[in-house]
Every structure is written in C-alpha cells, then in structure tokens.
Amino acid sequence: VESMKxxxxxxxxxxFCCAVAAQNLCIPLDLKTEYLENPLGIDSPLPRxxxxxxxxxxxxxxxxYQLVLGTDSLAVVNGNGNxxxxxxxxxxxxxxxxxxxxxxxxxxxxxxxxxxxKDSRQISSTIRSFETGMMDMKNWQGAWxxxxxxxxxKPAPYFRxxxxxxxxxxxxxxxxxxxxxxxxxxxxxxxxxxxxxxxxTRFDRRNLYVTYDITSQLQNGDNAVGVLLGNGWYNHQSxxxxxxxxxxxxxxxxxxxxxxxxxxxxxxxxxxxxxxxxTSSGAVIFNSIYTAEHYDARLxxxxxxxxxxxxxxxxxxxxxxxxxxxxxAQQIRPIRRVETVPVFTVKQFNDTxxxxxxxxxxxxxxxxxxxxPEGTVLKLKHGxxxxxxxxxxxxxxxxxxxxxxxxxxxxxxxxxxSGGKDEFMARFNYKGFRYVExxxxxxVTLDRNxxxxxxxxxxxxxxxxxxxxxxxxxRLWWATNNAYLSNLMGYPTDCPQREKNGWTGDGHxxxxxxxxxxxxxxxxxxxxxDHRDEQQPN
Length: 538
Hints:
By secondary structure, this protein is mainly beta. It is 13% helix and 36% strand. It has 5 helices and 34 strands.
C-alpha cells in the first residue's frame, strides 16, 4: 500500500511540474514547517507553515490560498485533509499558523497549499510533511542515566544496549536528549550528519532532544544502540577566565533515549534507557569544547555499538535526575561539517614536525590519517598566525586560557597511535585556525593528503548575494560571511578560538549581515529562547 501511494504521489508531482511549465503560473515553492523542510520530531502544538511564490510576470501576486493537511498522503494530494482545511482565504499571506485539530505525538502529517494568482487562476503545490515528536515530557519512557563518574574524570563515557526485535518493522525513531554532547550509533553505524549536538542551552533550564529515523538501520532479531557522550559546555573541565568550570549546572554528561519501533501489525515497542544499559570508557580519553580532544587509538573497542560485541567487561549505569524541567525538541538548522578545505601548502621542518597551511581562516576541525609506531604521540596545534621562524604563534588566541598547558594544551588535539593505520577527528570540539602544526614523539611520514580541514558551522542556507564589478568588494563580502559563519555554532559567538562566547553585542552587530545573507531564523529564535532562559524572575 505504501509503495503504491509513493508511486501515485510521484506521478502527481510529475504531472504538476509539467502543467506548471506549460502554463507559466504562480507557483508555490519552498514549503516549510517551522522554517524547516519536512522536519522530523517537532514539538510545536501550532506549527507555522510557510511557502514562497515564484511568478515572473509583471504585477504578479497571490490573491488567495488554501491549506490542506492530514495524515493520509494520497488524500492530501487529492485535496482532502482529515485534520485541517482552511478553505479559500482571500489573502496574500505566505506564512500561516496551524489552527486545525490537536496534533498528536509521534505522528506524520502531510500538507500542501493551493494558491490563486493575479488572474484568479489556481495552482497546487506538491505535498510536504512534518512529524511530531514527544510533544510533552510525560511521553518519555526512558530514564536519565550516566556512568557514575565525577565531573573531573577525563575519559568520555560510552554506553550500549542490545535488544531483540521479533516482528516485522514498519518504522523506527530514536529520540535522544543529552546534557553535554553526543554521538549516536545503531548497529555499528553513526546516525546523522550533525555535529556538536545538541546545541548549547542553559542546561539547568532547558534541554534539547534530537529525532532520528533509524528504520533502515534496524533488523529483525538482535540489534544494538550505542551512545558516546562529550562534555561540551555542560561539564567544562578546562580553566578559563570566565569560570565555565564553575557553572551552576555543571555535572558529568547524562542522557535519556527512547527507541520507538512501530511494527507492520500496528503495535509499538519502546526501548528506553535504564539500568539494563552498560557503560565503559574508551579511546576518547579527554574532550573539551574550549581547548581540544585527546584520543588514544590503542583503546579503541572495535564494534562496541554492534549486537555481537562482547560487553562482559563493561559496567552498570546509574540513574540521574533530569537536568531541567523543560525537555524540548531541537528545531534548528544543525551544526555540520559544511565544507571540506584541502591543504594549501605543507612544510616539513624535520621528521617529527610538519606545518600545514589551509590558505584561509576557518572555524572547524581537522582529520588526520597516519601510520606510526604504537604509542607515538602526535600533537596537532591549531592557530591563526606564524612566528618569523614558521612555527605557530598562539599569543593572540590563548590569552584567556588558565589551564594546564602541558596536559591540556590550547587548541591542540593529541593522538596516541595504535601501531596500525589510524584516523582521528575531534568529535566534541572545534577550533579557529588557518595553520596546523603537527609534532610527533617519534618520526612519522606525512604528506599533503594526510590532513584535511572541515569548515564547521550552523548549516544555514544562503539566501542573499552581492556581485559587483569590483573584485575587492566581492572579496570583502565573502570574507565577512566567512567570519560570520565561523561564529555561528547554534548561537552567535564572538570568535571561534580564544573565547567562543555568546556576547550579545557581537550577535547584535552581525545580525543584518546574517539575515540578509542567510536563512538563519531558526538559530535566532533559539537564541532568543536562550535569553528567556537567562532572565531572572523579576
């Protein structure tokens, strides 16, 4: 039945596109729910639906619209919505707040818009969808759990749960709420392409959860889910002048998760976090959102998130209290590794020291592939300037750092080699840099292909452009946007290296650059929520 529906919808879409091309009509495009395309797991009880009109004719305008919304995709294609039908509204509005029947949790809704143009001719959009998430904290079944360690324990905690599914799977979702940062794995595969999830909030007043479609990752029989937690801003172990290590919410990272499986017979099974999970430390031996990450490849537990892994040496977990009384969906353009930046030049000082220049200043991470003797220690120092002798000068970016510069060097990842082929990229940290100086305790052979950088930021779509006959003006526009994106990490920051702070003055000065050039409204609405979280009762 589902396959037939998809085929009919595809046929309707092709027919729609051909008809539009032939008639040159007023076309509704870019349909969004809460400013996102087909979002998964939203909590808004009255979501905003929006679209854009494409009509190149003189005097073009939308004179009316009709919204149709329901749970049956084919019915919506045919103009029938079992949840909401506005009827024809004489209006040029292209953003409308839902006001139909109450939306249910864990439900997929389909919608489309019909518009009338300046000549009162009507045309329908293709259909779009959104899926609700928890909608209410009472719908969580899992418990908040942790590894029982203290706030100063350095290794990151790994968690796993093996479970068996006995019936045919129709669909499956994973809902995960975290105080700190995380990576989610199902049957050995990392889920999603987000980075530094969930985005920062004041953890004792609001926590965000993210929804994943894991249908294709699950199988009948044995399955396993794995979670790796990072400190983020929740458990700040590095020392800076702003006393992040003394934050009132500070604690060892914790999480709560529900895996919700819907079977073809209509029944639902939820696998939640609880005392039947197991935990262990592993290769991530230290992580700091402010300084860097340390990784001991000798401690890798290969296959740790697969069903066949032997976890007999892993330990039990502990219950934790929810960090706040407000657990809500992360409805925001996520942080991603948006652009791959290859090495521009590489200079070898000797057989243990290399200097990589990426040709531009970015915020992000680097990934190294290297082979060397077991136990060899590599340090990857990231910076923006060089001394006259060609080595990295960090004096402009480490001025506010007050931590241990030997054990926790600023913007310097540390990799301990396993003796085989090793690959490392920081999971829970980002840096501001142009240059990377790689030093090793024993000789290693590196070349320009050994290192790559990723420009990392909230993945806001570009919507504006400046193009002039003056190359300098165009380059200034590009450089401004490069600087702006380097400071968008779920909230606007002042710099991606020495502070990473959300000063409101910096955010204010940059907001016109932001909104003329990028579709950043989801980030700024989240940022305003951060302001509300910080307000005192008076």
